[in-house]
Amino acid sequence: MLLSLLAVTLGTGVATALGTLSLQVGDDLARTLRTVGPNFVLRPEGAEWRPDGGPDARVARAGIALPESAVAALRTTFWRNNVLEAAPELDVTLRARGRAVEVTGSWFAHDVATAAGPWRTGLATLRPLWKVSGAWPAEGAEEAALGSELALALGVREGDTLTFASANDARLVRVTGVVAAGGLEANRAWLPLALAQALGGRSGEVDRVSLSALVRPAPLRAPPDPTRDAAAYERWMCTAYPANVARDLGACVPGAEVLPMTEVVSGEAGVVHRLNLLMLLLALAALTASTLGLLSTTTATVLERSREFGLMRALGATSAQLAKLLLVETLLVSLAGGALGWLAGTGAAVLIRGEAFATPAAAQPLLLPAALAVAVLVALAGTLAPLRMALRLDPVEVLRG
Questions:
Q1: Is the overall model pTM greater than 0.70, yes or no?
Q2: Poorest-pLDDT segment among 16-25, 221-230, 359-368
Q3: Distance separating alpha carbons of residues 142 and 196, to the nearest angstrom
Q4: Domain co-membership, 234 together with 277
Q5: 31 located within any domain
Q6: Same domain for 104 and 203?
Q7: Torsion sign, CA atoms 310, 314, 318, 319
Q8: 364-400 confidence digits (pLDDT tens)
Q9: Host domain of residue 325
Q10: Are 199 and 149 in contact (CB under 8 A)?
Q11: Among 260, 287, 307, where does a domain finish?
Q12: Are residues 8 and 98 in the same domain?
């Protein structure tokens, strides 16, 4: 009995732990992967810029721009809690030390007024993996940060001064940091947004808003037909799929659209899908081992109790009565093991998630009936073969010894 109880407890415990983690791993991984950088971009409709980059990733200049207030508008939509970080970006071409320099104006740590209170966001938190030797420019100051290759080409380093000039103005700025961003960004400079707007003569305008938002992997199936199943269609639209989030965020700013960075979004979806598949395989392996353990202990029980079963058959017990006795004993043990497994699995999920994501897992009461149902299936799978063996025992041969 104890061996059977232990086998079922271990199997359902592992399955419960993996199920608890699977229900929350999507958000956990999304928040962890959000440290890589943005996964959406808000841009004007008709702009040439593409979120997946390219050799020329500038916005068309034909009067296409976004208002600076577009960032605050992101926190007014249905998905406002999914938007974690955002940073407006304005591209201008300036001259410094006799050469043209691509400069991006942005916020680095800016307080945005929203209905829920101040929202502090900017490039520093949007791209935490960029390594800055020194510091990002202060908001409202005449300071700059340079890409590593640009700083080397201009012969400047942290603490030096540099003059940025445009057709409208020229400003002497202090270099506060050198950014190791890699790629095309290594030849770029960053200025506070207000300073870039003044030098570019584009007050209150931004070219795009890069943002980081929590989303769920997009399903492969098509959305439900709203005319046939309105409830399913509503659930679909209220799920944080990339297309749903992008559509609603784009609608908050007239003349704008939100595009997902397809490589980032699809890569995150692939990671979540593979992790869920791995946990499913591990759960099936644990339940298989539990079934085999229960099968072996039940078989041993039948062999040890063969005289008892033979005597019962000799006294007139029917096959149905004998099967009921053995099944009820196994079901009771399995149900107890399922309940203990749910408790053990929930505790294990709390420890595992706390170690991996610094946040303990919440108990999932919905998994308790699932654990009991799995325990019943394990009991049936582990009892049918020994039950057939018990029903085939010949009372005469058993009692003869």
A1: no
A2: 359-368
A3: 10
A4: no
A5: no
A6: yes
A7: positive
A8: 788 888 888 988 898 888 888 888 888 777 777 777 7
A9: 2-25+269-400
A10: no
A11: 260
A12: no
